[in-house]
């Protein structure tokens, strides 16, 4: 009887289908998608805590998009990231290292449904050029494609940051503007080279400029998606997407 019971149980176990692997969304990029709380970012850079070198937010637009699409988020984004064509001011910030980590952890595979990438702005103020950015990033997109052949790969652009050629260093109960045409130029360059990279690799470019028009860092609280340097709105990092911005970007990606 014991042997019969064992045979029956074994047969039942064989009949139970193996659990399906979770479909995933993999996020790559710089501090805009990473969006770590400021204290975590500072602690990681100073080496004064147990945080990893690349802390991230559990509520950034990659995580929000994954939740909206019913996918499991895997976040490899890292503050200060640049393309491999630039030596970052911060150590270990080469985009290729994010892809290395994803491959080592087997995060990119046949169950990867979506890949989001936002990177490029950091190249421009560190001497990078659009042509070098595109040339250096093409092999990284190819690595991602090879490892995750079923994934829909999207290069997510930056939202509207500047107000014309102005930035706002303060946006609280008062607004302090500074004329900064170089920042506006970098913003335009980043948009152009991200779109060029998408075209060169046959992936999608998610253009956020139109839907964030008028929601720049100088906009009033109820409209602002990008924080000022000193800002009393809901934000983790100064001069980055705020909570409203992350929510909006996730909605745009989910609808795309």
What structural keywords apply?
single chain, Rossmann fold, three-stranded mixed β-sheet, 256 residues, 9 helices, five-stranded parallel β-sheet, alpha/beta
Offer a quick outline of the entry.
With 256 residues, this protein is an alpha/beta fold.
Molecular structure report:
- It holds the Pfam family Lipase_GDSL_2.
- The active site is at residues 31, 240.
- Residues 28-247 form the SGNH hydrolase-type esterase domain.
- This protein has helices at 2-15, 31-34, 38-46, 61-69, 95-104, 121-124, 130-147, 181-201, 243-255, and strands at 24-29, 72-75, 112-118, 152-156, 166-171, 175-179, 204-206, 230-231.
- The strands form 2 sheets. A 5-stranded parallel beta sheet has the order 2-1-3-4-7, with helices on both faces.
- By secondary structure, it is an alpha/beta fold.
- The chain is globular, with a radius of gyration of 21 Å.
């Amino acid at each position: 009887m014991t042997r019969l019971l064992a045979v029956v149980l074994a047969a039942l176990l064989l009949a139970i289908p193996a659990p399906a692997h979770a479909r995933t969304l993999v996020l790559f990029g710089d501090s805009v998608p990473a969006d770590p709380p400021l204290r975590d970012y500072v602690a990681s850079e100073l080496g004064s805590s147990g945080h990893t070198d690349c802390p991230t937010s559990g509520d950034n637009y990659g995580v929000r998009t994954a939740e909206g699409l019913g996918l499991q988020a895997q976040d490899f984004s890292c503050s200060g990231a640049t393309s491999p064509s630039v030596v970052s001011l911060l150590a270990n910030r080469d985009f290729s290292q994010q892809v290395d980590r994803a491959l080592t952890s087997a995060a990119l595979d046949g169950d990867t449904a979506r890949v989001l990438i936002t990177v490029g702005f950091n190249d421009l103020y560190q001497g990078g050029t659009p042509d070098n950015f595109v040339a250096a990033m093409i092999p990284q997109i190819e690595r991602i494609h090879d490892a995750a052949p079923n994934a829909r790969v999207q290069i997510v652009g930056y939202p509207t940051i500047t107000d014309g050629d102005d930035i706002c260093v303060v946006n609280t109960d008062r607004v302090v503007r500074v004329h900064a045409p170089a920042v506006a130029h970098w913003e335009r360059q980043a948009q152009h080279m991200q779109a060029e990279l998408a075209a060169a690799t046959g992936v999608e470019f998610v253009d956020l400029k139109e839907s964030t028009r008028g929601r720049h860092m100088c906009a009033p609280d109820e409209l602002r998606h990008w924080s000022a340097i000193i800002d009393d709105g809901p934000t983790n990092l100064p001069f980055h997407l705020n909570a409203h911005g992350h929510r909006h970007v996730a909605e745009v990606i989910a609808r795309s």
